[in-house]
């Protein structure tokens, strides 16, 4: 045989990558929407969807349900839309479009539940049947889509919104300082404000473990659904978007480095030793969600 150092050998390694259906991370960058399948040991390369340019003017929130991706644009001009993209058939449709250009207009943060689409604007929370197409949106108390005005909730209009969530008939509305809770069917029936020490920029709810994840200028936090035991999880979160994948036990959030992921928190007091890791290096992402369908 050869003695040590007598001969050098070149080693070749072949890695086989199988193209199989999986859940996907979906995110907005500039005027494009991308999807990136989530595998057990990593992520595939991000690929762009063929979403019409008019549906991506200033994407600030994304929601996936069934075969549709909903795109919320914070555009204050008459070009601003709430749009739907049929992932299977590759077609884009407009649900609602700004009827005028004012600071109260726009589709800032979105949520979908029980056949309704919800969004926040500078003066309150709005809702629309998910099957609606090509309707005009005019902000204000007289709006056909009005669910609750900030003033109606005892808030000052024109402040920053951090999202809306519907849970068991209660609306969680992050606005200025904290999260205001009110009865969906009777907005004047207030359920109290939680997390009032935080200026929340985005939030997401793990409905299984009853944990509320949110981001402010100090980073990413978790609390119970009722706002108890807030704990900081990561200081690098930039607050643009958060997504919960309860089925896969993962939390995704935006940072200036790119999207990060970490396991969801399950402890009663929200303490965890888990750390976040980088999924991709796109630091300009403005919105993200998880497509739970296997594609």
Mean pLDDT: 94
Q: In total, how many beta strands?
A: 26
Helix share of residues? Answer: under 10%
Main pleated sheet: 5 strands, antiparallel
The assigned structural class equals mainly beta
Write the layout of secondary structure elements.
Elements: E1 24-29, E2 32-39, E3 42-43, E4 47-48, E5 59-65, E6 68-73, E7 81-86, E8 91-98, E9 110-113, E10 116-121, E11 124-129, E12 135-137, E13 146-149, E14 161-167, E15 170-175, E16 179-183, E17 186-194, E18 202-206, E19 211-216, E20 219-224, E21 231-234, E22 237-245, E23 250-255, E24 259-263, E25 277-278, E26 285-291
Parallel strand pairs: 8-12
Antiparallel strand pairs: 1-2, 1-26, 2-3, 2-4, 5-6, 6-7, 7-8, 9-10, 10-11, 11-13, 14-15, 15-16, 16-17, 18-19, 19-20, 20-21, 22-23, 23-24, 24-25
Keywords:
single chain; 295 residues; mainly beta; five-stranded mixed β-sheet
Describe the structure.
With 295 residues, the protein is an all-beta fold. Helix content is 0%, strand content 49%. Strands 1, 2, 3, 4 and 26 form a 5-stranded antiparallel sheet that branches. A 5-stranded mixed sheet has the order 5-6-7-8-12, with no helix packed on it.
Can you summarize this structure?
The protein contains no helices and 26 strands. With 295 residues, it is an all-beta fold.
């Amino acid at each position: 045989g050869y003695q040590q150092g007598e001969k050098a050998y070149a080693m070749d390694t072949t890695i086989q990558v199988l193209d199989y259906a999986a859940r996907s991370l979906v995110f907005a960058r500039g005027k494009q929407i991308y999807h990136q399948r989530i595998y057990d040991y990593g992520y595939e390369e991000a690929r762009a969807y063929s979403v019409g340019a008019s549906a991506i003017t200033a994407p600030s929130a994304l929601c996936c349900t069934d075969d549709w991706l909903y795109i919320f644009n914070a555009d204050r001009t008459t070009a601003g839309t709430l749009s739907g993209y049929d992932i299977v058939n590759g077609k884009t449709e407009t649900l609602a479009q700004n009827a005028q250009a004012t600071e109260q207009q726009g589709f800032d943060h979105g949520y979908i539940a029980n056949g309704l689409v919800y969004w926040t604007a500078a003066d309150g929370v709005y809702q629309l049947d998910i099957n609606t197409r090509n309707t005009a949106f005019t902000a204000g108390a007289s709006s056909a889509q009005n669910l609750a005005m900030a003033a109606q909730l005892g808030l000052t209009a024109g402040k920053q919104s951090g999202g809306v969530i519907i849970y068991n008939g209660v609306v969680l509305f992050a606005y200025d300082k904290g999260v205001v809770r009110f009865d969906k069917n009777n907005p004047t029936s207030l359920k109290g404000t939680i997390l009032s020490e935080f200026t929340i920029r985005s939030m997401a709810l793990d409905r299984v473990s009853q944990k509320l994840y949110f981001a402010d200028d100090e980073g990413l936090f978790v609390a119970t659904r009722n706002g108890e035991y807030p704990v900081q999880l990561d200081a690098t979160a930039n607050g643009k978007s958060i997504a919960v994948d309860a089925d896969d036990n993962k939390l995704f959030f935006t940072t200036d480095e790119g999207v990060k992921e970490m396991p969801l928190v399950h402890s009663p007091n929200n303490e965890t030793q888990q750390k976040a890791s980088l999924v991709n290096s796109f630091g300009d992402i403005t919105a993200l969600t998880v497509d739970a369908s296997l594609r």
